[in-house]
Amino acid sequence: MEEKELRLEEDAILFEPIRRTGRPFYLTLSILVAIILWAVWTYLHQYRHGLGVTGLARPIFWGVYITNFVFFIGISHAGTLISAILRLAKAEWRRSITRSAEVITVLVLFFGVGNILMDLGRPDRMFNIIQFAQFRSPLLWDVSSITIYLTASSIYLYLPLIPDIALLRDYSGKRKWFYQIFALGWKGTERQHHLLEKGIAFMAILVIPVAISVHTVVSFVFAMTIQPMWHSAIFGPYFVAGAIFSGIAGLIVAMNLIRKVYHLEDYLRPVHFNNLGILLLVMTLLWFYFTFTEYITVYYGGEPIQMTIFWSKFTGGFAPYFWGMFLFCFVIPLPILSLRKTRTPLGTLIASISVIIGMWLERFVIVVPTLTNPRLPNEAVSYSPTWVEWSILAGCLSFFILLYMIFTKIFPIVSIWEVREGREKSVAEVQERIKTYLPGIGAE
Amino acid sequence: MRTAFSKGFLMHRWGMVIDLDKCTACQACVVACQAENNVAIIGPEESAKGRTIHWIELIPYIEGEYPHIKARLLPRPCMHCDNPPCTKVCPVYATYINEEGLVGQINHRCIGCRYCTTACPYTVKYFNWYPPDWPKELKGSLNRDVSVRTKGVVEKCTFCSHRLLRAREKAKIEGRDLLPEDYIPACVQACPSGAMYFGDLNDSNSTVSTLSRERRAFRLMEELGTEPKVIYLSEGM
To answer: SS3 helix, strand, coil % of chain A, rounded to 5?
Structure first.
């Protein structure tokens, strides 16, 4: 018992956010709540009057909401997927970042789904999707895939939380009954540890194909139609790569904030940002590769209907969005992430914010130009989102940040037991492991 | 399979022929459709934003290359494709193709996701951005055979399928089979220059069937494999 008390002191700073809540928290909270209330009012306004309050029209039937949908689902790929891959790869530097990543996934998914629901003309009929489900529709594939993904990532977030909840149950004093329930009687026995690790490993494997399927079927919503520049076989992998790209960027931003606000410089170290920065660099290049492939094939094919859209992006009305996307997704992050000197927490933060903006633009540039140039001649209609759509986007972002903040106030945002395990066991384990890689050190 | 079924010779397969040589682009079809199907009247302000609803519309297109350019106008109802891209994507079966080849729309089931509107290569689908509205004078003369849509749902040309229901009932009461001339959409009926024909494409002797085999016959974007049942007869040949 004495020993445990001591160990609590060791990582005391990780309990700080749960123990104490200062004025800045409430200040931020009230600002976010104000924005959210504004967005709720905006949505009620749209619900009352119809989607006419948006900038949408025929033939641009989809706009910011669908862009948001793809964008938020993309961000969700940060967490679970990256954490799962790092766990499976036994990357030891994962220990202090997995939790903050997994939370993103679970929370942001609600906003992806929420945007689809807000895009519906008759949200009151949304349960028709269950009652009259037509599985030929890619939208149903999305519904199924996202439901599985949300369930799996919630479990995957919860499992590694159990030992930490037990710690809080035993030592925090606050909300004891709550932690009591969710700790599921965790005592930290050998058997429990064994089961937990098995569970986590199983979920880590399960979650990878699920995550990939999610963004693939999101892309299929577009790719399964015969519309020019949507009907493309590359869309599945292109969207998955884009999702991981924006996901890592989202994670880096979140980690930077947690680090500053809760003074976790000791846990989220420059090396973490360096490593994630390298990962982001790889994704930057991969993103460029996919984008290049996508557009060069269209350009060489030279089909008039495709070229109309192509030129509307390169030189036409959508050029600011397209080149903005290129600037934010590639030109800005590439040099920052390439140089060791700028792959610092601050450097990766700047690159990540740039990537997030760029990836939102990418989704917009995929959705809107195709719809603006239908196959049959149409009156020239241009789409500019209204205050309603921007308010709802602001509301979604604020709501997401709010939920994330609240999470950090209830649960430790850095996995305490995993960090400890790393300190206590892994150093020796890794040493052993390295021995098995090499000849002539004595181990088999 | 569905296609094969709807093409089965026992069934009717309703289709339309539009002779562009005869069409004067007077838009009588557009007006007739508007009145027949309770299509909402959209004010000038919303129209400028691209929010009008026209189940049939005259679309301008340019033919030929400079200096031999001709501007044409083409009446465009729903193509009632045999292989419709819209029905595949609807998550709730609110748009479907029936055994007679009519592509229907269940306004009371539609959730307003607008997936079908984006999937249709002919952009024939329209959305109710606001609750539909009519000037006071018109409200009294709405067609009681056609349901009025609500805000937030998709609508489109149905080939006036309510008229088919009516014709069927009438034939039943009179104790006879349905004759092709019993069922005719409002636009075809209204066309003053007789440029529009309607009938059973499965009946090889019907006017539409004969015309559809003419040398002038073409369909819009046949290369997409949608198999439209609106057949145009080209101009000036």
So the answer is: 75, 0, 25
More confident residue, A424 or A300: A300
Task: Provide the token pair at B116.
Answer: 């079908």
Q: Render pLDDT for A168-179 as a digit per residue (tens, 0 to 9).
A: 888 777 788 888
What are the chain A neighbours of B109 within 8 Å (beta carbons)? 125, 128, 132
Give the domain range for residue B88: 2-233
Of B60, B93, B152, the CB nearest to A122: B152
Report which residue type is found at A102.
E
Mean pLDDT of B179-207: 92
Nearest Cα neighbor of B223 from A230, A228, A235, A308 is A228
Other CB atoms within a 10 A radius of the CB of residue B31 amount to 14
Q: Which residues contact A3 (CB under 8 A, 6 or more apart)?
A: none
* CB A296, CB A240: distance < 8 Å: no
CB contacts, 8 Å: A57 with chain B: 49-51, 129
Q: Are A250 and A78 in contact (CB under 8 A)?
A: yes
| Of B49, B85, B91, Cβ closest to residue A57 | B49
Whether the pLDDT of residue A3 is over 60: the answer is no
Rounded CA separation B156/B220 (Å): 17
User: Which CATH number is B127's domain given?
Assistant: 3.30.70.20
| pLDDT band of B6, cuts 50, 70, 90 | very low
Q: Is the ipTM of this complex over 0.95?
A: no
Instruction: Record the pTM.
Output: 0.92
B88·A136 Cβ contact <8 A = yes
Q: Tokens in use for B87? A: 């029905």
Contact partners, residue A414, CB within 8 Å, separation at least 6: A14, A96, A97, A99, A100, A264, A267, A268
β B70-76/B57-63 pair status: antiparallel
Q: Looking at the 3D structure of chain B, how many domains does it have? A: 1
User: Cβ distance A58 to B50 under 8 Å?
Assistant: yes
